[in-house]
Design brief:
This protein is mainly beta. It has two domains: 84 residues, Carboxypeptidase-like, regulatory domain (Immunoglobulin-like, Sandwich); 178 residues, no CATH class. The chain contains two helices and 26 strands. Strands 1, 4, 12, 13, 15, 19, 20, 22, 25 and 26 form a ten-stranded mixed β-sheet that branches. Strands 14, 16, 17, 18, 21, 23 and 24 form a seven-stranded antiparallel β-sheet that branches. Strands 7-6-9-10 form a four-stranded antiparallel β-sheet. It is globular, with a radius of gyration of 20 Å. The two termini are 32 Å apart. One of its GO terms (molecular function) is carboxypeptidase activity.
């Protein structure tokens, strides 16, 4: 049975002020260099139930809603975290850990195509109009992908290891927004050194693992482009220690972007052998409130958030004496051979 209840709180971190309006709590914690918007949501959906629709204001304006599951055509098993892209668009949707998805589309996209893809499968395109005609937009659709038994060029494997397990490790995975944007680090981008930094400790269930990408949530951007440098650190005494990838991994996020930002790292062939930290360095030349990280009021067990205001200052673990609001939305996507 679906749990349709949602208990949402929006908490804006400012400086030493609190305000309660109805069911919305606004409070402040002193993180002088970053304005954080917090969203928490509860609820889950079991396998083989129709995906629950929980749309943002932007999605509510869409008139076409398609929901369903992405499945393996051979085994009929769900395909977790499959990518669903409207052909010609930059933003994409992502299925959940049980293969369930919900697409909120604009009327002008009705005659377009969606492209469904996942690691280890042949990508497949589907007509949006055909999906609507088949059973109507209110009925769950099963979208099947055929396994691709070719070896993966970015990962060295033996002849039998053709199937892969995708895992996401981190906090508030895919919560807060259904929209995803994928970026690749650019060799031509530069950033002023010594910018503000914030990150999370990441723990995997087993090692080694091949790192595919890192993701973080944005509640919203200003009208200017924002550059972010993604750093991966080893840990010492439970704090970031040595940089694992010496070259900068800089992306440029266009104005007015909101949702999950995924940084594709496949080209770097990164193997993770122990716990590590993902850290975001913000352009020091920007104003302190040019971006709004999506973070959450609930703190998952084991989450540790690091921050510092410059490279000259030591790392600190984020704490709050007013309210427990230390949890930012960030995760890593890794693969293991089956």
């Amino acid at each position: 049975m679906l749990n349709n209840s949602r208990n949402k709180r929006i908490i804006v971190l400012q400086k030493y002020s609190t305000l309660s309006v109805g069911r919305t709590l606004v409070c402040a914690v002193s993180l002088s260099w970053l304005t954080l918007f917090l969203i928490s949501a509860s609820g889950s959906k079991p396998l083989n139930q129709e995906p629950e629709i929980n749309l943002s204001r932007k999605q509510q304006r869409a008139s076409i809603v398609i929901k369903g599951f992405v499945l393996d055509k051979v085994s009929n098993a769900p395909i977790p975290y499959a990518h669903i892209l409207v052909v010609g668009e930059r933003a994409y949707f992502e299925a959940d850990s049980k293969g369930a998805f919900t697409l909120a589309l604009k009327p002008e996209q009705e005659n377009g195509q969606i492209k469904v893809s996942s690691l280890g499968y042949v990508a497949q395109e589907f007509s949006i109009a055909d999906l609507i005609k088949q059973n109507g937009s209110s009925v769950a659709h099963n979208l099947f992908l055929v396994p691709d038994y070719k070896s993966l060029p970015a990962v060295e494997v033996n002849a039998k290891a053709r199937k892969w397990t995708i895992k996401k490790a981190g906090y508030h995975i895919n919560e807060g927004s259904a929209i995803h944007y994928e970026f690749y680090p650019s060799d031509t981008l530069t950033m002023a050194a010594g910018g503000h930094a914030i990150g999370n400790k990441i723990q995997l269930n087993k090692y080694p693992a091949a790192l595919r990408s890192v993701s973080f949530g944005l509640q919203g951007l200003s009208g200017e482009r924002l550059k972010v440098n993604v750093r991966l650190y080893s840990l010492k005494n439970n704090l970031p220690h040595l940089i694992l990838i010496p070259e900068p991994l800089i992306i440029a996020i266009p104005p007015h972007h909101a949702g999950w930002i995924t940084v594709n790292l496949q080209q770097y062939n990164i193997t993770i052998k122990e716990d590590f930290a993902i850290v975001l360095e913000w352009d020091g030349a920007k104003e302190q409130n040019t971006s709004s990280l999506m973070v959450f009021a609930t703190l998952p067990k084991g989450q540790i958030t690091y921050y510092r205001e410059s490279q000259l200052q030591p790392w600190q673990i984020a704490k709050s004496t007013l309210v427990d609001v230390k949890s930012i939305g960030m995760y890593a996507t890794v693969i293991y051979p089956k």
